[in-house]
């Protein structure tokens, strides 16, 4: 149930639990602890955060559990992100923007460490490609964070192929993932070749929104309808009713080694995700879903 | 009249005869043999097949001639392809899809060898980029086919730049061509940089549909009309009436070393193609056709 | 005020004076000499030409000053370009096209040397990517021009990433720049990743039309209006009224080391450009302009 992130040495669980909406789940500290423990029981030991999730609150909520249960930290891997400067009532900026300056990256990680009550982040991602990025500054920030032991591994999110190559050419540490949106509802990273690039580089993609924020199970557009019935058809092959299991199997069967991030706070949903690890789609089954996503047959 | 496929050692004829519609030509075995012999006389010694052409019948028709005339095989080079799983009355599949698994590639080549009555394929192409491809399996299949002498050279068809790089990074054999659609009617591989990539890698592109399936000679759209009159204008420069000769000259004059595939079963059409080898377009002549294809002047 | 073009050794001024419209400025030889001397006073020592500017007249006008003031040549760097074959009353061609054959490149440079009254060009650019280019011929031309001392450095203009890679793979000299259109009005080379590619390769982009031909200061479209008010807002931060200064600062603050080309014949405009060297935009200020260009907030 572990996946080795290419040659880096970092081991993440095959499915990752996302914490973006933790602040909305209404968990007590005890309930969150139980959720985490059950996830670990399922083999899901990696938790995906970002500095800004829940308007900068989610890391802190999660960190309270780590504080009160000191045995937890060694059983899990923590991912967090930095670089987005939100604008709202709490953060009064002139515009939402990105900041990947050395000083901001380091400050953001220091905050994340404090919020999460931990002394190290397992994997730090640049949240969005920053057209104003100074790769030399990012390199210096990464070196400092790596040498101090505060961050063990580094990666990016939502980068194009070229943006990945550019940043990699400047930083001394290997970039071990690109966290991108992939689902039967969103196949843009097949169409823009990003997935093939990561396969060339032996880098595991992480997939955010693997269920397209629930759009997979709505029949409110022709596209959604096609995908829904395709998932249903494959579900029937395996006698499985939970279409999310099929959507996860579609991602997990792919040779790129895609690591999906389950974003739900319902433990049953995570269970449905984990069940998909037992399924292996044939090329024909995989294409039934892919062509529904594409909207037409392959040429 | 031969072209050396980069550093690989494989020699193909400068123009290739395509066999996609062989089943529609209504040739007797003798007529097909005569067609092949005349092509060889013209210097066209390479024949382009695919497992699926004619709903899996064309290889077999061609193979009958090789069986009855045993001196032919050594005078020609055979290209075939694999990876497309058609769906029709004969092949009852749930959807048309691709399959580039190790087991399918090897099985498909074994069938092609049997159909063609030969013990080796000169050049095997993956017919379409397979988003579900497992490059490790393709690599194993290629190694096995190469080591057994069943396939001498390998390439791809319709791949993007990145898909080519990805597959090349996994397979041990060099990919010696990308067979793509190129014609004055279809310049997408100039626009998506594929042709420049192949020039960087010193790889000869093969061009399918070099006459755009006949669209070049119709005046049923503004685009077709522009191209028709551009070809006519250049034809006048050389006192040549057959516009297909000009279209081939446009491809053959290009420094990328494009190898066009003539798809017609009429030997006069192949003759028109071969005649183009004597023409060399100037930059201005080449641009008259290119700008007709583009629909506007270059900036 | 000098910028070192990567590892090449060529030093250009941080801002370059473009000569495309020199023939329209109505300068006497004395006025042009004064303009050049004032530019040099400002630290602007690099002058950007092309064979075709002013329908092949601008180089000659400039060269008259170099002829009469023999001390000037050693104080400046000359850029020129070749490869575009214009079509008009003076040049009666069948179509406008490109020509990057060896014979044309060398002939064009010989003409530029004669027109400019100099024995060497500091930097020669291929003006436009030529889909009919024969990179081997370009390589031979560059070698010959380099070995004879007639051209010191080489580069390209308006090339895609792949076109740049392809040409670089064939020529022995390093390509030290890609001169592309960049301005708050035109961010296409952020969107097509060209700027990130140049950052990967440690190559300084040159920016033509940094003020979008004056479009930056018109309020005749929603886009223009958004950009106008963004520039105004940042101008206020620095108590600067000249919006062109802000536009230049936006380019010069970027870590890619963009070298803008000022195209105006009014010395005050060049002064406004030079003033921008004192400004350093923060990420937030930079994004206020970028998002105006984008038309929406970043995700």
Q: Overview of this structure, please?
A:
The structure is a homotrimer of 299-residue chains. Chain A is α/β, with parallel strands linked by helices and 299 residues long. The first copy, chain A, has a domain at 2-181: TIM Barrel, CATH 3.20.20. Chain A has helices spanning 29-41, 53-56, 58-68, 102-116, 135-147, 161-170, 188-191, 194-200, 222-237, 243-252, 267-275, 283-294; strands spanning 2-4, 11-13, 16-18, 46-48, 77-82, 84-85, 97-98, 121-126, 151-157, 175-181, 204-208, 259-262. Chain A has an eight-stranded parallel barrel with strand order 3-4-5-8-9-10-11-12, surrounded by five helices. A two-stranded antiparallel sheet of chain A has the order 1-2. Chain A binds chain B through residues 161, 187, 190, 193, 195-197, 199-200, 254-255, 283-284, 286-288, 290-291, 297-299, and chain B through 85, 93-99, 101, 128, 130-136, 158, 160-163, 165-166, 169-170.
How much of the sequence lies in strands of chain A comes to 15-25%
**What is the number of beta strands of chain A?**
12
Could you say what the CATH architecture of the domain at 2-181 in chain A is?
Alpha-Beta Barrel
Order of strands in the sheet with most strands of chain A: 3-4-5-8-9-10-11-12
The topology string of helices and strands of chain A comes to EEEHEHHEEEHEHEHEHHEHHEHH
Low-pLDDT residue intervals, each spanning 5 or more residues of chain A = none
Straight-line N-to-C gap of chain A: 36 Å
The description of the largest β-sheet of chain A is:
8 strands, parallel, barrel
CATH fold title of the domain at 2-181 in chain A? TIM Barrel
Classified in CATH, the superfamily of the domain at 2-181 in chain A is NADP-dependent oxidoreductase domain
For the residues shown, what is the average pLDDT of chain A?
Answer: 96
Oligomeric form of this entry? homotrimer
Report the radius of gyration of chain A as a whole number of Å.
19 Å
**Secondary structure tally, helices of chain A:** 12
Family (chains A, B, C): Belongs to the aldo/keto reductase family. Aldo/keto reductase 2 subfamily.
GO molecular function, one term (chains A, B, C): oxidoreductase activity
Keywords (chains A, B, C): NADP, Oxidoreductase
Domain NADP-dependent oxidoreductase (chains A, B, C): 14-291
């Amino acid at each position: 149930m572990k996946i080795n992130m290419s040659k880096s040495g970092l081991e993440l669980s095959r499915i990752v639990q996302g914490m973006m909406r933790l602040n909305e789940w209404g968990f007590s500290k005890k309930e969150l602890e139980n959720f985490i423990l059950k996830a670990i029981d399922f083999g899901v030991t990696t938790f995906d955060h970002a500095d800004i999730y829940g308007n900068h609150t989610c890391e802190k909520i999660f960190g309270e559990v780590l504080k009160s249960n000191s045995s937890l930290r060694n059983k899990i891997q923590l991912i967090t992100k930095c670089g987005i400067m939100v604008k709202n009532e709490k953060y009064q900026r002139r515009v939402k923007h990105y900041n990947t300056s050395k000083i901001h990256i380091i400050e953001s990680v220091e905050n994340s460490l404090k919020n999460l009550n931990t002394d190290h982040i397992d994997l730090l991602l640049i949240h969005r490609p920053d057209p104003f990025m100074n790769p030399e500054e990012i390199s210096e920030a990464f070196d400092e964070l790596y040498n101090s032991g505060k961050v063990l591994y580094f990666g990016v999110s939502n980068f194009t192929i070229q943006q990945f190559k550019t940043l990699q050419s400047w930083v001394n540490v290997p970039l071990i993932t690109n966290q991108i949106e992939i689902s039967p509802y969103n196949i843009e990273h097949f169409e823009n070749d990003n997935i093939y690039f990561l396969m060339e580089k032996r880098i595991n993609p992480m997939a955010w929104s693997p269920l397209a924020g629930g759009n997979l199970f709505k029949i409110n557009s022709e596209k959604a309808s096609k995908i829904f019935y395709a998932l249903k058809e494959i579900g029937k092959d395996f006698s499985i009713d939970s279409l999310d299991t099929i959507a996860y199997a579609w991602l997990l069967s792919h040779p790129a080694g895609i690591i999906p991030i389950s974003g739900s706070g319902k433990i049953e949903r995570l269970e449905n995700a984990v069940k998909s690890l037992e399924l292996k789609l044939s090329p024909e089954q995989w294409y039934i879903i892919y062509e529904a996503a594409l909207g037409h047959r392959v040429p």
